[in-house]
Amino acid sequence: MSKQDAEGQVLAQLAEVVGCSPLAREPLSAEQSSELARVFKAMGDPVRLRLLSLIASHAGGEACVCDLTDVFDLSGPTISHHLKVLREAGLITGERRGTWVYYRVRPELLAQVATVLEPAASDALPVVEA
Amino acid sequence: MSKQDAEGQVLAQLAEVVGCSPLAREPLSAEQSSELARVFKAMGDPVRLRLLSLIASHAGGEACVCDLTDVFDLSGPTISHHLKVLREAGLITGERRGTWVYYRVRPELLAQVATVLEPAASDALPVVEA
DNA sequence: CCCCTGATTCGACGGCTGTCAAGGTAGACG
DNA sequence: CGTCTACCTTGACAGCCGTCGAATCAGGGG
């Protein structure tokens, strides 16, 4: 619950601070770049990035921790640590159902991040605008 | 020159390895996630992210190092270090013209990264398709 | 109630990273 | 040539980060 709130706040902060301002439109403020960097930092690890893709592409949009652990040559605690980092960055959410814990991605956050990146490409790739 | 080649190879590798495979479509391989993580890691620092936006949004699409250094309360070598990280990640390119060195972003790489992120959002936000 | 499994937290350790001061290189200008 | 400015490289150091083993927490059955 408090954990859920914290996750929600991360997303809300990102939405508020970053908004839809494209990277190439205007320079990021110190605050904006700190918020955004937190997300990129979380994605800046091969294991976490793979975890993210495993969860995102898993059937039903969610994956149990035990499914994820088997994929890597890493200890349980290490996987748990990486999942925590992703959670605290607002990229995924975790829910306990009985014995198992299921994780799913937050598509909204990924969409926001993509929005920040994309317009920079519009200088190179012509985009049809309304 | 060898430096330029190295930068080009990073981009080529990313293009080859990552391609246009969306995050939520299928799980990333260990190799793919390592390549992608390298880029996210480079963006996972507030200073570097801000440098990136400063360069991207600067008039003419390029910025001189001296323009960038003044923005931060950081020493010259530190800025130079961050620029090197961004360069080795394939996110920017540097060119010396006389006394000054000018940096500009690689929109292609940003576009590719955005492509990897975006399709995950299409599950949440309805998208109009042709 | 005790144990068994799944998952997280804790404590510790090695390696990586951001930072700076000092020194080095490249080009411009006399 | 000498020197000045712009930028980079090196070396060093503190702090962070990924990893593990051990301990701990949460449920589900005997």
Automatic annotation (TrEMBL), chains A, B:
Keyword entries, A-Z: DNA-binding, Transcription, Transcription regulation
Pfam families the record matches: HTH_5 (PF01022)
Transcription among keywords: yes
Entries under SMART domains matching the protein: HTH_ARSR (SM00418)
Domain of life per record: Bacteria
InterPro entries per UniProt: ArsR-like_HTH, ArsR_HTH, HTH_ArsR_DNA-bd_dom, HTH_MetalResp_TranReg, WH-like_DNA-bd_sf, WH_DNA-bd_sf
Sequence ranges assigned to domain HTH arsR-type in this UniProt record: 28-128
NCBIfam families found in the cross-reference section: HTH_metalloreg (NF033788)
Protein name (Swiss-Prot/TrEMBL): Metalloregulator ArsR/SmtB family transcription factor
UniProt source species: Actinomycetospora termitidis
Lineage: Bacteria, Bacillati, Actinomycetota, Actinomycetes, Pseudonocardiales
